[in-house]
Amino acid sequence: MKADWEDKKPTFAVVDVRELTGNFLPMILRKAQQVNLHNGMCVIQSFEPKPLYSALQDLGFEHVTEKVSDREYRVYFYRTEIKAITYETGADMPFKPTAIVNYKVIDDILAGTVVDFWEQIWGNEKSAIDLKTKLLLSMSNAIGASRFRQATRELIKAYSLGVTVEELDELFSLFAWNQGIGHFSSEIGPSTVFGVYRHIKKREKEGLDKRVILDEIMEKFGDRNPDVNPLYRKRIKCCEQFPEQQT
Fold first, then answer.
1. Rounded Cα gap, residues 16 and 71, in angstroms
2. In a domain, 232, yes or no
3. CA-CA to 146 of 20 to 30 Å: which in 39, 44, 58, 240?
4. Around Cβ 230, how many Cβ atoms within 10 Å?
């Protein structure tokens, strides 16, 4: 059934991200927040950008998707209401799935396949496991595999959705038990995920508001931290100073 606003599509501002390989989601969200009520925007991508659907729905947008070809999708977003976004609702949850862009570098169709898998795992609205628990399970699995980059991101997302320090205390006790004291001491303790846990515990003890703590965490352990960002980053300066060490 055709939406009653679809006749307005030609008037929508167009954002073409097909050639972008960095994290373009913050840019799209900024543009979306500037769209007035009963106006819209069109996003062009080389695969169906399903993660955008829930992100913009949380801002008050409906959407219609048109598949122009296997490598061109046009999604028209129309704003039906102005919504306030919060960490607690998940609307402003840190770390959207930007790593999908890595697959786009390889092949657009592969990126679309990964998006479909992501949607089945994380975008399932009828999931029997709540999102916070899923994130803690994913974090635990990542720590078990020494994928501390992923574990850090999952911890921050879970904290934004309400995980408590008491829950984290028990989790990290389990990590010491299951991974062993030696592994915990040499690998988990110095990791970014343990750094986030320590920061949360210290700042909550000092009485800081959770939103302030989240802002601090994102400043120190957000995408600007090369040990947390899942996208390709240029080699650090020290390697450029010692080219003989490069392979």
1. 13
2. no
3. 240
4. 17
- Whether 143 and 121 share a structural domain: no
- What is the token pair recorded at 155? 């911890």
Backbone phi and psi for residue 78, each to the nearest 5 degrees, phi listed first: -125, 130
Q: In the chain, how many domains are there?
A: 2
Task: Check residue 238 and give its pLDDT.
Answer: 38
* The model's pTM: 0.76
AA identity, residue 58: D
Decide if 230 is inside a domain.
no
Domain presence at residue 49: yes
- What domain range is 184 assigned to? 129-221
Domain identity same for 106 and 216: no
pLDDT tens per residue, range 46-72: 999 988 888 888 889 999 999 999 889
Q: What does the chain come to in residues?
A: 247
